[in-house]
Amino acid sequence: MIEKVLKLYLVGVIGWLGWNIAKNTKPADLLPAKQSGLHIVKAPRPQAVVAGQPLLMYVEAHSSRSDELHYQWYFNKIPIPGAEGPTLTLFNFQKGNEGYYSVVIRGARESIQSPLVLVGIDQNVTSPSPRSAASTWQQAGPFDSVPGR
């Protein structure tokens, strides 16, 4: 008997809540909030880079005012000279490049900073050194321009 009363009570409460929400909610309230002004669509992500390989970071931003956007990348909160586009590329990532990266995007009236992301050396992978690659080539035998010999 108590279970029936509880079930009826729950059905009544849930029914009232549903009716109240439906009665007092406008369709526009159910839509996601619109982004206003300048916002980041795709932020840079943390990475582990193989030493000696390139680091590639990217940010995508949007301004509802159709402003021209200006970018400045930062390494450990210090501006990186010449890094002024939506993409940051470091061609020979080394231990000294490990740290926190971010980008500031400026429009005509406002600016926004991406979150700091940690980039480090991938300790699980090592690049072959040029010396070890050369010794492997020499161990393969003499070079012959005719296939199969």
CATH superfamily of one domain: Immunoglobulins
Secondary structure: number of strands: 10
- Biggest beta sheet attributes: 6 strands, mixed
**Poorly predicted parts:** none
Q: Give the SSE order as H and E letters.
A: HEEEEEEEEEEH
> Termini distance?
93 Å
Question: Which fold name is given in CATH as the topology of one domain?
Answer: Immunoglobulin-like
* Estimated radius of gyration: 28 Å
- Helix-strand makeup class: alpha+beta
CATH level-1 class of one domain: Mainly Beta
Average pLDDT, to the nearest integer? 80
Put simply, the count of helices is 2
Q: Could you walk me through the main structural features you see in this protein, from its secondary elements to its overall organization?
A:
The chain has about 150 residues and is α+β, with helices and mostly antiparallel strands. The chain has a domain at about 40-125: Immunoglobulins (Immunoglobulin-like, Sandwich). About 20% of the residues lie in helices and about 30% in strands. The protein is built from two helices and ten strands; from the N terminus they run H-E-E-E-E-E-E-E-E-E-E-H. Strands 2, 5, 6, 8, 9 and 10 form a six-stranded mixed β-sheet that branches. It has a two-stranded antiparallel ribbon with strand order 1-4. It has a two-stranded antiparallel ribbon with strand order 3-7.
